Amino acid sequence: MTEAPPLHFRKMNGLGNDFVVFDGRTSSVVMDESKARAIADRATGIGCDQLIVLEKSPRADVRMRIWNNEGFEVESCGNATRCIADMLFDEMHKTRATIDTKGGFLIAEKGGDKLVTVDMGAPRFAWQDIPLSEKFHDTRYIELYVGPMDAPLLHSPSVVNVGNPHCIFWVKDLDVVDLAKVGPMLEHHP
Predict the structure, then answer these.
(1) Do both 77 and 138 map to the same domain?
(2) Which of 43, 64, 51 has the alpha carbon at shortest distance from 21?
(3) How many CB atoms lie within 10 A of CB 99?
(4) Which CATH number does the domain housing residue 40 bear?
């Protein structure tokens, strides 16, 4: 029985999101839902918000594939793109990088030491593009309650897709919101 060769990776962080990055440009990296979940698991794996696999691209500086910590491949992520772009700037000695993602091409530019901007394209507001499980005519305000209906912890968010879905609750004081409690409730909302 032969042992599988080790997978070398980088751990990167962008604005609090952490990523495990595998460079598949020089050797093949095969990723699937169960492997992505296992690697992302903070208790038994490496632990991360998202897992990135870089591949060669004939149309861009790199192809970037992204899996969330639940094992699903997503279109793109701004923070991950900025991390990968910064790495590419160092490798290529350039100040601009093109990154091919499932959601399309992204252009990143160096704005200074460790400062990277990314054009994520136009945000998508149509309910089916986010996607939501039910139809909403106006996603700037949807009827959603997190917690008990008679005393919701949060309610009436805006939703948008900027490469992956975002749900935005407008609050006056973030310190009174228990994000550790609300986050999982929202992630598993039907």
Answers:
(1) no
(2) 51
(3) 23
(4) 3.10.310.10
DSSP 174: G
Three-class DSSP category at 17: strand
Token pair for 66: 């992204």
28 and 105 housed in the same domain? yes
Encoding tokens for residue 164?
A: 């992956």
Taking only the tens place, the pLDDT of each residue in 168-186 is 888 888 888 888 887 777 7
Q: What confidence tens digit (pLDDT) does each residue in 43-91 have? A: 999 999 999 999 999 999 999 999 999 999 999 999 999 999 999 999 9
Residue 182's closest CA among 148, 138, 132? Answer: 148
Both 78 and 13 in a single domain?
yes
Could you give the CA distance from residue 176 to residue 178 in angstroms, rounded to a whole number? Answer: 6
Count other C-beta atoms under 10 Å from residue 66's C-beta.
25
Contact indicator for 89, 126 with CB cutoff of 8 Å = no
Q: Is 47 helix (H, G, I), strand (E, B) or coil?
A: coil
Please state the domain count of the chain. Answer: 2
Which domain range does residue 87 map to?
9-119
- Whether residue 108 sits in one domain with residue 15: yes
Distance CA 34, CA 103 (A): 22
